[in-house]
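TOKENISED FOLD:
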Amino acid sequence: MFKKLTIAAAGTALMAFGVSEAAQAASFNVDVLASDLNSPRGLTIGSDGALYATEAGKGGSGSCIPSPSRPEVDLCYGATGRLLRIQDGVTEPIVTGLPSIASPQDGTEATGSHDIAFDATGQAYVLVGLGSNPGNRDQLPTSDFAQLLKINDLNGEPSWTAIAD
């Protein structure tokens, strides 16, 4: 009897804790910092205090390679990846034209810029994925997939250098 009572008491305590956690979660406010993004991926805070985000993009109508998860679906190239700066309520594309592949029908399975980091000098680096057999990269119009890119300028123009494969 005591064992059943202990289990029932423990179950009641866990349920009460779970309800309490749900009630606390419901009281949090959520602020949308950016919307209408195309396959957002990595986030980091820059030395200027701004939030930086990468978008893998939505591909395009360029060369296509097979999807690694659904071989009957093609993923097609487009220079639709971006690097964004989000600061003081303003979302600003600071590097556009990054490589992207995705399904041309609906933009799903997007791969492109996945993460951003800054070194101690403030130099920005973006990691671009491929999500496919590396041999497929030769079928695309750029070799920037599956690369670490050094961003040459944060001024909205597509300017970078591939520094590592």
Notes: Residues 1-16 have pLDDT under 50 and may be disordered. Helices lie at 2-26.
